[in-house]
Automatic annotation (TrEMBL):
SUPFAM superfamilies: Periplasmic binding protein-like II, Winged helix' DNA-binding domain
Domain HTH lysR-type: 5-62
The protein, known as: LysR family transcriptional regulator
UniProt keyword terms in alphabetical order: DNA-binding, Transcription, Transcription regulation
Domain of life: Bacteria
Pfam family, one: LysR_substrate
UniProt entry tagged with the keyword Transcription regulation: yes
Family in the record: Belongs to the LysR transcriptional regulatory family.
Length: 301
């Protein structure tokens, strides 16, 4: 009986659990409730025990159902990975590789990876989107790129797979002529709130109503990292910057670090990850590019 079990039955089982009812599962799967009920009844007949207690208004997992749920999720995920791998192999080498890259990613390591890519794949065009926050992820979700290198957005949405690349430290900096530069640390948040904080703007709608690392009620939103860097050196405000970008400024005294009493919730740094959609993994060129970035990170470390 178990040999006849299908992935479709497992997906129906998972949907019934996640949606809370057979009718809701039917809406998610675009099937009639009767079809969902019949599918689950057949699955229970095959495994030899009930997966749901149907005595109440809504079906509840039995103890056996709870025990089987994780196995069902793993089996369904494994089939998804199998299909995605088969699709990738069938497609062959990508005609073009589009990658969305977080502006916080170290430019030296990115440049080295791009140079190596052009040597290995001279006939494969490379298109890069350089953005921040949700705008890094938006081209991936919209299908405009296959890989996103992201760190300034701390949360990876469902349906995506991520691979850790490196941590990029961040520091709070300000011009030595700025009033904050002359305050003894640690600086209270109440004092920071009196001064303009320069922050990167999100060109997508993914972070509407949310803020990351904002500690002042006075903010200037800039869509360009270069503009933020220039404004900081001009003394127009204070802000967080990736350490590799401002190391030379700190060494020459064009910028100074601030000792803050309270760090933002996201922490003083960015965990860079290579992200792709579970159903659309990168092809040979995309996989090579991700692995090259990892090698660049290891070499730099």
């Amino acid at each position: 009986m178990l040999d006849g079990m299908s992935v479709d039955q497992l997906r129906t089982f998972i949907a019934a659990v996640d949606e809370g009812s057979f009718s809701a599962a039917g809406r998610k799967l675009r099937r009639a409730q009767s079809v969902v009920s019949a599918t689950l009844a057949n699955l229970e007949a095959q495994v030899g025990f009930p997966l749901f207690d149907r005595s109440g208004r809504y079906p509840k997992l039995t103890e056996a159902g709870v025990a089987m749920l994780e196995a069902a999720r793993l089996a369904a995920a494994g089939m998804d990975a199998f299909r995605a791998k088969a699709r990738t192999l069938a497609e062959g080498l990508e005609p073009e590789l589009a990658v969305s890259v977080d502006v916080m990613f170290p430019v030296a390591q990115l440049t080295a990876a791009v140079q190596a890519f052009h040597q290995v794949f001279p006939d494969t065009p490379l298109r890069l989107y350089v953005e921040a926050l949700g705008a890094v992820l938006q081209p991936l979700l919209d299908g405009h790129c296959r890989v996103a290198i992201i760190g300034s957005l701390p949360h990876i949405p469902a349906g995506c797979t991520s691979e850790f690349l490196l941590n990029v430290p961040a520091v709070a900096v300000v011009s030595p002529e700025h009033l904050l530069a002359n305050l003894p640390g640690p600086i209270l948040r109440s004092l920071l709130a009196e001064h303009v904080q320069l922050v990167l703007a999100d060109r997508s709608s993914l972070t509407v109503g949310r803020s990351f690392g904002v500690m002042s009620s006075k903010t200037w939103h800039l869509a360009d990292m270069g503009a933020k860097h220039a404004f900081l050196r001009a003394g127009l405000g204070w802000g967080y910057m990736p350490l590799p970008v401002v190391e030379e400024d700190l060494a020459t005294g064009k910028l100074v670090t601030l000792n803050l009493q309270m760090q933002p919730d996201v922490g003083p740094g960015f965990a860079m990850q290579a992200v792709h959609l579970e159903e659309h993994p990168p092809g040979p060129a995309g996989r090579w590019f991700i692995n090259k970035l990892k090698m660049q990170v290891s070499a730099a470390g």
